[in-house]
Write a structure and sequence with these properties.
317 residues; alpha+beta; Ribosomal Protein S5, domain 2; eight-stranded mixed beta sheet; four-stranded antiparallel beta sheet; 12 strands; 36% helix; binds 4-diphosphocytidyl-2-C-methyl-D-erythritol; binds adenosine-5'-triphosphate
Length: 317
């Protein structure tokens, strides 16, 4: 095969708790990550020159080396120079549907798809843990994007433990097109404001265990109880992003006041806000109500749902 098309789903954070900072400059986290139906399509194919080329239909997405998909291809070329020499270069087409810089792991899932696609193109036969490990060198969210489904993520977000799959919880996503939140800014601001409460004593296991409060939502996920999951949603980064972005706070409040919303929260470092629903009908109704409550063409709204997979191959030629 010389060409693969892959679906690269976005993620939301059902839970994000910051435990402490780390010597490597990252933060120690406890998260629950969830793949959702909103996805980009990534096409990868071999080309005769020994170069990496990226094309994208979205004007805000760079196509040079700063694109995470480009960096994923470059990493594969460096790790597997013989395969790169044998199969030649790679052309990557990104059909972007996931809002950019939105807290939905758009770049990370594109990178994950390129790792999976090149593994297939070059017949490397890498295992999922090997792909996840490579992904971790590109970004903290990339290993989850390879695996997908529902998972607890610890460490800097790259250590994954799968949870039972959550299928068909319906979701409305809201994002202001012109608002972007920088992930490094969000973590840095959090550290400046709340760093005093970090548990830095790595030997004090009891203190670290007490610092993690994810037990109730993990139980709700294991019980597959959407109402209970929605009650236990949590994201520490809301503490810095909501005060700095009043529009995001307002959107969250509008969601919270709609009938049928099980729960609402900001995803990752934002600014996307999501709300959870029992049915697609309720989700579509609330989308229309929010559109009427906030008359602003800058606000984009999507209905989607939880899904049980990460990167998926849809065709090969
Ligand atoms: C906000 C989340 O999307 C939630 O899933 C992730 O924690 C961020 O994942 P990501 O975008 O893949 O992040 P990376 O590319 O690894 O890191 C971007 C920047 O975010 C900060 N960062 C990220 C992850 C982490 N555990 N601690 C951090 O402090 C660091 O400043 C880092 O330089
Ligand atoms: N393939 C890509 N898709 C989208 N953005 C990319 C990509 N590669 C690089 N970028 C750059 O990365 C920045 C962050 O975009 P991205 O959509 O990945 O953010 P995000 O969803 O907030 O990520 P995360 O949830 O992992 O923190 C953008 O401003 C964009 O310039």
């Amino acid at each position: 095969m010389r060409s693969y098309s892959l679906i690269a789903p976005a993620k939301i954070n059902l839970y994000l708790e910051i435990i402490s900072d780390r010597p490597d400059g990252y933060h120690e986290l406890t998260m629950i990550l969830q793949s959702i139906g909103l996805a980009d399509q990534i096409d990868v194919h071999s080309i005769s020159t020994d170069s990496i080329r990226v094309h994208c239909n979205h004007s805000q997405v760079p196509t040079d080396k700063s694109n995470l998909a480009y960096r994923a291809a470059e990493l594969m070329a460096m790790q597997f120079p013989e395969a790169f020499a044998q199969y030649g270069g790679v052309e990557i087409n990104i059909n972007k549907q996931i809002p950019v810089a939105a807290g939905l792991a758009g770049g990370s899932t594109n990178a994950a798809a390129v790792l999976v696609g090149i593994d297939l193109l070059w017949k490397l036969g890498l295992t999922q843990p090997e792909l996840e490990e490579l992904g971790g060198t590109l970004g903290s969210d990339v290993p989850f994007c390879v695996a997908g489904g529902t998972a607890i993520a610890t460490g800097r977000g790259d250590q994954l433990s799968p949870l039972p799959s959550l299928d068909n919880i319906y979701i409305v996503l809201g994002k202001y097109r012109s608002l972007e939140v920088s992930t490094p800014w969000a973590y840095k601001t959090y550290r400046e404001q709340f760093g005093d409460s970090y548990i830095r004593d790595s030997d004090n296991l009891a203190a670290r265990a007490n610092a993690v409060h994810s037990g109730a939502i993990v139980k709700a996920v294991v019980d597959k109880d959407p109402g209970e999951i929605a009650q236990k949603l949590h994201n520490d980064l809301e503490r810095v992003v909501l005060p700095a972005y009043p529009q995001v706070l307002q959107l969250r409040e509008v969601f919270a006041n709609q009938e049928g919303v099980l729960g609402t929260m900001m995803s990752g470092s934002g600014p996307t806000v999501f709300a959870l629903f029992e049915s697609q009908q309720q989700a579509e109704l609330v989308l229309r109500q929010v559109r009427e409550a906030i008359i602003n063409e800058d606000l984009e709204l999507f209905v989607t749902r939880t899904i049980t997979h990460g990167i998926k191959v849809v065709s090969s030629v």
